[in-house]
Amino acid sequence: MSAPLTRRNGMLILVPLTLCWGANWPAMHIALAEIPIWTFRTLCLVLGGAGLLAIAAASGASLRIPRRELRPLLICSFFNITAWHLLSAAGLQLMLAGRASIVAFTMPLWAGLIAWPVLSERPTRRNLMGLGLGLAGIAALILPEWESVVASPYGVPLMIGAAICWAAGTVGVKYWRWSMPTVVVTGWQVLLGGIPIAIGMLIFERGYDFATVDLPGWLGLAYTVLVAMLFCQWAYFKVVATFPAQLASISVLAIPIVGVASSSLLTGEAIGIDVVVALVCVLSGLGLVLFQPAKRPVTATAARAEG
């Protein structure tokens, strides 16, 4: 792969990376209001995966998958891509984008629990406190809106399921050893994980008429593919190659904040006290888990950096 950035240029990329990933939540929400789940995710994953592999090839990396790494790659693809993208898209249709981003980024908290039996990494007191704060944040979102939750009860469980699947995939990436560069592992995960979703599109949404999609839907789709799937992934690898993993984790902490703020600006979502309390709880929990003084926990940043 290409050489790491200088620290100054790395910082210049870290800021737009965080802003662009956070803003992807309202962009997806807008697109999913017009484009069905299976079709939307198929386009994102096929185009995004192909683009990532093209970037890897252009940087001189080999795209060959070693035979011994194919099975682990398929397992990680299922949890990190297939399950995550389907469950999060379904949950996003039933929740406001800002709230959905908060629930989704409880992922590192679940990863700490899954790592216990899989990686023999016993949860520390900070891990358990972080998980408790994350659950308190979810409760802060649910309880004030209990009537609407009862009327449409599936949004939060779907997003929690998405976060747990993402966590399982993250632990899997750390569990197996990879000879392929991180960008190649990620590109193949995106492309292979998109195959079951593409099959689902052909079964459930065959003949979908794209003429029904208005400009906001197309813009939301284009943003997700070009900015979130391509630029953000490329920029992320550059940042991880430049900075220590814990410093790169700052972007993970900031994404829900950007998600809530951008959702308010772009879709008019209200930021009430419940959202603020939930955000504080989840960010505090993430801070406890991501920045432990001794042993590094399993996080999306660490797992992808070591992939």
UniProtKB/TrEMBL annotation:
<feature type="transmembrane region" description="Helical">
    <location>
        <begin position="271"/>
        <end position="291"/>
    </location>
</feature>
<keyword id="KW-0472">Membrane</keyword>
<dbReference type="InterPro" id="IPR050638">
    <property type="entry name" value="AA-Vitamin_Transporters"/>
</dbReference>
<feature type="transmembrane region" description="Helical">
    <location>
        <begin position="43"/>
        <end position="61"/>
    </location>
</feature>
<feature type="transmembrane region" description="Helical">
    <location>
        <begin position="216"/>
        <end position="236"/>
    </location>
</feature>
<dbReference type="InterPro" id="IPR037185">
    <property type="entry name" value="EmrE-like"/>
</dbReference>
<feature type="transmembrane region" description="Helical">
    <location>
        <begin position="73"/>
        <end position="96"/>
    </location>
</feature>
<feature type="transmembrane region" description="Helical">
    <location>
        <begin position="158"/>
        <end position="176"/>
    </location>
</feature>
<protein>
    <submittedName>
        <fullName>Transporter</fullName>
    </submittedName>
</protein>
<feature type="transmembrane region" description="Helical">
    <location>
        <begin position="183"/>
        <end position="204"/>
    </location>
</feature>
<keyword id="KW-1003">Cell membrane</keyword>
<keyword id="KW-1133">Transmembrane helix</keyword>
<keyword id="KW-0812">Transmembrane</keyword>
<feature type="transmembrane region" description="Helical">
    <location>
        <begin position="128"/>
        <end position="146"/>
    </location>
</feature>
<feature type="domain" description="EamA">
    <location>
        <begin position="10"/>
        <end position="141"/>
    </location>
</feature>
<dbReference type="InterPro" id="IPR000620">
    <property type="entry name" value="EamA_dom"/>
</dbReference>
<feature type="transmembrane region" description="Helical">
    <location>
        <begin position="243"/>
        <end position="265"/>
    </location>
</feature>
<feature type="transmembrane region" description="Helical">
    <location>
        <begin position="102"/>
        <end position="119"/>
    </location>
</feature>
<dbReference type="Pfam" id="PF00892">
    <property type="entry name" value="EamA"/>
</dbReference>
<feature type="domain" description="EamA">
    <location>
        <begin position="155"/>
        <end position="290"/>
    </location>
</feature>
<dbReference type="GO" id="GO:0005886">
    <property type="term" value="C:plasma membrane"/>
</dbReference>
